[in-house]
Amino acid sequence: MKAAVIVFPGSNCDRDCKVAIERSTGASVDMVWHRDTALPAGLDLIVLPGGFSYGDYLRCGAMAALSPVMAEVKAAADRGVATVGICNGFQILCEMGLLPGALLRNEKLKYVCKTVALDVVNSQTRFTAGYSDRREVTMTVGNGEGNFFAEDATLDRLEGEGQVVFRYRENPNGSARDIAGIVNANGNVLGLMPHPDRAFEPELGSADGAILFQSALASA
Predict the structure, then answer these.
(1) Is 17 among the catalytic positions?
(2) What is the pLDDT of residues 122-143, one digit of tens each?
(3) Taking the model in full, what pTM does it have?
(4) Which of 13, 60, 94, 195 is catalytic?
(5) pLDDT, tens digit (0-9, with 9 covering 90-100), for 170-190
(6) Is 195 a catalytic residue?
(7) 209 Cβ partners below 8 Å, 6+ apart?
C-alpha cells in the first residue's frame, strides 16, 4: 500500500500524518512538496494535512488550492483515489471544489483545541467501514476556522445522500448541523476538522483515528 502526504509551507501536521499512517497500516508514505508537478505512481491514499498553509493568508486553504501539485491531486481524486483532507486539508478541499461548503471563523471567534466526541453518522463509507457498529469515537480538534457552512439545500442533500460522515456530539465551533466531516458524492474524498492523526494510539488518549486510515487503505 502506498500513501502520500502533501506538504505546504505552513503545514504542521504533515509528519504526524506520515507516522500515523505508517504505524496504523504499515503503508509506505511519501512526503510530496506542494510545488511538485507529479505524484508518486500507484498511490492508494492522498492526505492533505492540518496546519496553516501559506500562513492562512487571504483565506484558509485558498492559496494552497492553487499550488502546482493540486492539479494532480484533483485528477487522482477524480479517478477515484482515496483522498483525505484534515483540518486545513478540509479547508483546501472545499476551496478546490472537491467538497461543497466552506469553513468559516469559529462561532465564538476563538481558536479551539480540545478532545471531542464524534458520532459516526455513516459507517458504510470507505473511510469508516472499520468502525462497524461503533457509534461514538474520540479525536481532537485544533482550529480557528472550523465552522462548516453550506446553504440549506446543500446541507439537505448531504444529509439525504449519506455524505455526512462525522457529527460533533458537543459542537465546538458552530458548524451547521454539528457536522464534523463529509464525503463527496463518489465517496472517495473525505474532509474532516477533527484530527485522526492525533488519535491513532492509546497513548495519545484515543486510537480511534487509526481505524480511519486502516479503512481507507483496506479497500485499496
Answers:
(1) no
(2) 999 999 999 998 999 999 999 9
(3) 0.96
(4) 195
(5) 999 999 999 999 999 999 999
(6) yes
(7) 20, 24, 139, 195, 196, 197, 198, 199, 200
